[in-house]
């Protein structure tokens, strides 16, 4: 007999009910469309899934899983099974949407990785701030303002200076947050809100009054092209997804690796984690808590600035009003999803970006889902993921509390 | 080496925390710094440690003046501090906590964690402070956490180690261990400043005693000759009653009856295991035990803050097991909780509000919908006077009071009602001698008025001197029911550790 706590039993039960809900969707919706869906996995190759057959089969498996969960729980296998079932459900959804048609599966995943960039970089910015004990909800504002300035600077000069403009913009807004929340101890959430609204207002103004009249000179640039990494890009399937991407994608992977190493393997990381959990412990050992918070916030602003520059320079080639559309908030959800760990945040960013890429893809099919609902997809996924799968997670303890060194 | 504080004055808005305080300590000796809460001990040490800057006065090391603008300066000068509330990051390991601020690094600022482990082991071997460098702080018992703090200080090569109320959080056996550590430090040529308000401990371990009262030096004492009473008088400014003064109890009818009560944690652990006992009118029953043996949970189950898994609680013959806390209050139960800041008070609200917290809904203080603040304030004034709560203005927040006075607010609120049973958990933890004396007297007064009193304390002295009957709790069970007049401290200590005195003597 497995020893299970009340907590585990409760979780096993709620996962069981989730399986039942998914099974109902399989039976009720995904079996309604006949035909096979073609998934292109390279320029020539593709596999196909019969939409109805797959949905029936998956539905039956899900009912079985639900019964197993409700009866006694799956113990250690629980999470792996959940991940596999979710992936299978996702495939069933795609084959339902694309029944009788075919689409580029590899292209959709490639798009996912590309779209994860601003979310990942925003999340790294969030992690750097919150790990040092400062709540940073102004990631959205930093992304948006950086997108705007980098579009202008890149149109007027070149892509490098454009990106630099984005970085400096992120740093400048971070400096405002830092001074108000560290020096003047203003409530960090309020300052964050103020920065977000300021960024939205000023960039909308610039967009209407400056960029629209001067579209050709100030808001017109050629975004960067994907770079094929030799050898790695030849790996079947995955090569296309991960190694034929723009420099922004490679930068965001590097940022995740560097942040992970930095936080867990360096002196800086030890101090940063300490001041986010219990700043007094570090302060009484002679660590200058507030100075480190300043530095980390500015660094967070710089990273978010690169994330903002992704829109004009990495994909779209221009700035539009509110182009970020809440991706900064989704980045914060990715922080929570990843439990304040950079790699976890990257996974979260990929999940959210996938929702967006799917939305763009299945918009082409006649699924009968109103497009307004499709646009909601990334946000709905955010709510489900954060509320349902993450549950209670532990934020850095001192996040939100100003540190007084007297 | 000799460290001197000379004429230190530190003012805060409205108070002079230190007024021309001077003291000195040399390596190789233990100086006990005694004073009531709020006497300025911690302020003085924060000045020495570079956290506060003194308004007047100077710090001298071997006769030459130094100035500290941050803890980093003080550490560099050879001063180490073990704070009362440990300065440890709970989610990090021992090694990470110890090297924080002096991290050994490899290439590119990378942390050399194996070197950090080695550093921890080196210090812990040298001073016999057993530690696992990879243990995570939040999994460690308090005594071990204190060892981590000591290793932290020694790693920075402190010549003088300041311990701020080090024994407040320790169990009796951990206190003995702590004294051994202090002796090791002194014989290794370090100096120790031991801040405390426990006189017995100061007399046991110190070479010299300095007493602070209201921010000033009240005098010095030689532990070889001075008595507890003399030092207590110096500390409080008047003669203090150190032993509880009470007559023989005249127990009446049974008031509280606990039968086969069990409490189970959400993770399945049984923390109170089928406990039965009764408390009669006019007697004080004490529950002794080392922290964490189910006392907290037992009290919470009696007070209605925690659901009992099985068993019953009966008050005056009425079963109240499923009553809410307010229903229990109305039935005549008073509860003085263990954690006064979190459970006993709403510290950021006013003293008036805190004093009517269990009665604000009575007709006396509210007319259905609106509060009668005039009545509440009048009542508060009355209680402030009757229970000797030291405040100029009861409309100020409870956080402005000292610990002892905060506790008096709770005692006043709970005992001033018409009650049949008083349940007090750690009623005097961390408060000054004067307040302890007062609170003990109030509880004896309640007893003599015919109230049943249940006192839970991890301070064995307190349980033994206050109670008419002593129960010992060990691993969720009551293992002994003793008469404090006939049983020795030693034997109670053995029960607390889970053995039986007859067996222990036989082996």
Short summary of the structure?
The complex is a heterodimer of chains A (406) and B (507). With 406 residues, chain A is mainly alpha-helical.
Question: Given the structure, what is the number of helices of chain B?
Answer: 18
Helix content of chain A: over 70%
Terminal-residue CA separation of chain B:
48 Å
CATH architecture of the largest domain in chain B: 3-Layer(aba) Sandwich
Instruction: Note poorly predicted spans of chain B.
Output: none
Number of strands of chain A: 5
Q: What's the shape of chain B?
A: globular
CATH domain topology of the largest domain in chain B: Rossmann fold
Shape of chain A: globular
Largest sheet of chain B: 6 strands, mixed
Q: Structural class of chain A, please?
A: mainly alpha
Rounded mean pLDDT of chain A is: 90
Please, could you describe this protein's structure?
The complex is a heterodimer of chains A (406) and B (507). Helices cover 70% and strands 4% of the residues of chain A. Chain A is mostly helical. Chain A has 16 helices and five strands. Chain B is α/β, with parallel strands linked by helices and 507 residues long. Chain B folds into two domains: 2-236, 3-Layer(aba) Sandwich (Rossmann fold); 254-347 and 403-506, Rossmann fold (3-Layer(aba) Sandwich). At the A-B interface, helix 11 and helix 12 of A face helix 2 and helix 3 of B.
Record the SSE blueprint.
The complex is a heterodimer of chains A (406) and B (507).
Chain A: H1 6-30, E1 36-40, E2 46-50, H2 51-71, H3 78-97, E3 102-104, H4 105-131, H5 139-156, H6 159-183, H7 188-211, H8 215-218, E4 227-228, H9 238-243, E5 244-245, H10 247-265, H11 267-277, H12 279-283, H13 289-316, H14 327-337, H15 342-362, H16 371-390
Parallel strand pairs in A: 1-3
Antiparallel strand pairs in A: 1-2, 4-5
Helix pairs in contact in A: 1-2, 1-3, 2-3, 4-10, 4-13, 4-14, 4-15, 5-6, 5-7, 5-13, 5-14, 6-7, 6-13, 10-11, 10-13, 14-15, 14-16, 15-16
Chain B: E1 2-12, E2 15-26, E3 30-34, H1 41-48, E4 56-61, E5 64-66, H2 71-76, E6 79-82, H3 94-99, H4 113-126, H5 142-155, E7 160-164, H6 172-187, E8 191-196, H7 199-205, E9 208-213, E10 216-221, H8 228-236, E11 254-264, E12 270-280, E13 284-288, H9 295-303, E14 310-315, E15 318-319, H10 325-330, E16 333-336, H11 340-344, H12 351-355, E17 366-367, E18 370-371, H13 373-386, H14 403-415, E19 421-425, H15 433-448, E20 452-456, H16 460-466, E21 469-474, E22 477-482, H17 489-496, H18 501-506
Parallel strand pairs in B: 3-8, 3-9, 6-7, 7-8, 13-20, 13-21, 16-19, 19-20
Antiparallel strand pairs in B: 1-2, 1-4, 4-5, 9-10, 11-12, 11-14, 14-15, 17-18, 21-22
């Amino acid at each position: 007999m497995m020893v299970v706590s009340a907590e585990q039993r409760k979780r096993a039960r709620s996962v069981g009910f989730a399986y039942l809900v998914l099974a109902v969707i399989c039976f009720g919706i995904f079996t309604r469309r006949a035909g096979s869906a073609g998934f292109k996995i390279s320029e020539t190759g593709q596999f196909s899934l019969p939409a109805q057959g797959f949905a029936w089969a998956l539905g039956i498996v899900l009912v079985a899983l639900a019964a197993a969960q409700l009866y006694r729980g799956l113990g250690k296998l629980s999470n792996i099974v959940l991940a596999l079932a979710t992936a299978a459900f996702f495939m069933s959804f795609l084959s339902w949407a694309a029944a009788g048609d075919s689409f580029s599966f590899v292209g959709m995943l490639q798009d996912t990785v590309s779209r994860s960039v601003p979310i990942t970089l925003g999340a790294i910015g969030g992690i750097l701030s919150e790990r040092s004990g400062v709540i940073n909800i102004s990631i959205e504002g930093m992304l948006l303002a950086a997108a705007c300035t980098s579009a202008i600077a890149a149109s007027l000069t070149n892509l490098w200076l454009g990106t630099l403009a984005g970085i400096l913009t992120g740093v400048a807004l971070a400096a405002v947050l830092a001074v108000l929340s560290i020096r003047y101890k203003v409530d960090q959430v309020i300052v964050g809100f103020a920065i977000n609204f300021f960024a939205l207002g000023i960039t909308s103004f610039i967009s209407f009054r400056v960029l629209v009249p001067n579209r050709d000179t100030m808001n017109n640039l050629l975004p960067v092209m994907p770079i094929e990494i030799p050898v790695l890009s030849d790996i079947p399937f995955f090569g296309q997804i991960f190694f034929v991407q723009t420099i922004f994608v490679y930068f965001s992977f590097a940022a995740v690796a560097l942040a992970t190493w930095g936080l867990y393997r360096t002196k800086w990381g030890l101090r940063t984690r300490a001041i986010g959990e219990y700043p007094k412990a570090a302060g009484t050992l002679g660590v200058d808590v507030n100075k480190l918070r300043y530095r980390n916030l500015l660094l967070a602003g710089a990273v978010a600035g690169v994330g903002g520059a992704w829109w004009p320079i990495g994909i779209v080639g221009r700035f539009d009003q509110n182009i970020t559309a809440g991706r900064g908030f989704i980045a914060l959800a990715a922080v929570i999803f990843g439990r304040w760990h950079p790699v976890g945040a990257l996974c979260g960013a990929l999940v959210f970006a996938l929702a967006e890429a799917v939305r763009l893809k299945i918009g082409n099919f006649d699924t009968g889902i109103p497009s307004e609902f499709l646009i909601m997809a990334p946000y709905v996924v955010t709510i489900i993921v954060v509320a349902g799968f993450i549950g209670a997670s532990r934020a850095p303890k001192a996040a939100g509390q100003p540190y007084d060194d007297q | 080496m000799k460290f001197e504080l000379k004429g230190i004055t530190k003012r805060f808005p409205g108070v002079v925390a230190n007024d021309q305080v001077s003291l000195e300590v040399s390596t190789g000796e233990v100086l006990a710094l005694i004073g009531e809460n709020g006497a300025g001990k911690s302020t003085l040490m924060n000045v020495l440690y570079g956290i506060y800057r003194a308004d007047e006065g100077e710090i001298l090391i071997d006769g030459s003046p130094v100035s500290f603008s941050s803890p980093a300066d003080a550490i560099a000068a050879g001063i180490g501090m073990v704070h009362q509330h440990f300065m440890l990051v709970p989610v990090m390991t021992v090694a990470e906590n110890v090297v924080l601020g002096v991290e050994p690094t490899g290439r590119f600022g990378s942390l050399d964690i194996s070197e950090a482990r080695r550093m921890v082991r080196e210090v812990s071997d040298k001073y016999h402070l057993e530690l696992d460098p990879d243990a995570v702080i939040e999994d460690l018992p308090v005594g071990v956490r204190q060892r981590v703090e000591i290793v932290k200080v020694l790693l920075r090569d402190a010549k003088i180690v300041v311990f701020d109320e080090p024994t407040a959080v320790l169990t009796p056996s951990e206190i003995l261990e702590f004294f051994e550590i202090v002796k090791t430090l002194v014989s290794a040529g370090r100096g120790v400043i031991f801040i405390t308000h426990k006189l017995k401990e100061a007399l046991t371990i110190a070479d010299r005693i300095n007493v602070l009262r209201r921010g000033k030096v009240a005098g010095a004492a030689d532990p070889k000759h001075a008595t507890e009473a003399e030092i207590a008088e110096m500390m409080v400014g008047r003669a203090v009653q150190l032993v509880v003064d009470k007559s023989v109890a005249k127990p009446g009818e049974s008031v509280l009856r606990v039968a086969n009560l069990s409490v189970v944690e959400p993770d399945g652990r049984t923390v109170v295991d089928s406990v039965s006992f009764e408390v009669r009118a006019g007697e004080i029953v004490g529950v002794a035990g080392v922290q964490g043996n189910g006392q907290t949970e037992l009290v919470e189950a009696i007070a209605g803050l925690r659901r009992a898994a099985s068993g019953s609680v009966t008050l005056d013959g009425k079963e109240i097991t499923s009553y809410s806390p307010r229903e229990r209050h109305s039935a005549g139960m008073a509860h003085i909780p263990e954690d006064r800041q979190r459970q006993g008070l709403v510290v950021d609200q006013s003293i008036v509000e805190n004093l009517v917290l269990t009665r604000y809904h009575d007709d006396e203080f509210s007319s259905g919908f609106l509060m009668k603040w005039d009545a509440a304030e009048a009542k508060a004034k009355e209680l402030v006077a009757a229970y000797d709560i030291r405040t100029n203005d009861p409309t100020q927040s409870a956080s402005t009071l000292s610990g002892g006075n905060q506790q008096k607010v709770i005692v006043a609120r709970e005992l001033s009602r018409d009650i049949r049973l008083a349940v007090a958990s750690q009623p005097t933890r961390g408060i000054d001698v004067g307040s302890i004396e007062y609170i003990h007297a109030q509880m004896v007064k309640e007893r003599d008025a015919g109230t049943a009193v249940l006192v839970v304390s991890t301070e064995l002295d307190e349980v033994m001197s206050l109670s008419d009957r002593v129960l010992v709790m060990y691993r969720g069970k009551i293992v002994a029911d003793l008469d404090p007049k006939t049983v020795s401290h030693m034997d109670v200590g053995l029960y607390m550790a889970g053995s039986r005195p007859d067996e222990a003597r036989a082996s």
